[in-house]
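We were asked to recover a plausible sequence for a given structure. The inputs and outputs are reproduced exactly as logged, with field labels preserved.

PROBLEM: sequence recovery
POSITIONS: 114
GIVEN STRUCTURE:
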């Protein structure tokens, strides 16, 4: 029995995913239940349960996730803009206890979100 998260299993290639980008610190995959025409998940390879549990040691990893969003958006020609979302906890609809950044694009986003 494994207590790996779904995302750790994807990172370890135990579960298939459509990978858009990968480097030594993160992987970017297509969401299987997209909420926008482009819906990507930017996932650190280092498991961090949620942003509320991140520490000062995680600062470089968190920054890398944001800069990777820009790299991937440029690669996919998301010139019209994109939104980044990080859920933290049940009330924010966090479903996997492995921090990740949602990149949503391809349609006009509404405000306020949620």
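RECOVERED SEQUENCE:
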């Amino acid at each position: 029995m494994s207590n790996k998260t779904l995302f750790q299993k994807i990172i370890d290639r135990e579960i298939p995913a459509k990978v858009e980008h990968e480097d030594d610190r993160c992987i970017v995959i297509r969401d299987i239940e997209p909420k926008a025409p482009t819906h990507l998940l930017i996932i650190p390879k280092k498991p961090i349960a949620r942003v509320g549990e991140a520490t000062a040691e995680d600062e470089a990893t968190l920054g890398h996730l944001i800069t990777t969003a820009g790299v991937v958006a440029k690669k996919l020609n998301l010139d019209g803009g994109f939104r980044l979302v990080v859920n933290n906890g049940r009330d924010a609809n966090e479903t996997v206890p492995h921090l990740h950044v949602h990149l949503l694009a391809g349609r006009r986003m509404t405000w306020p979100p949620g």
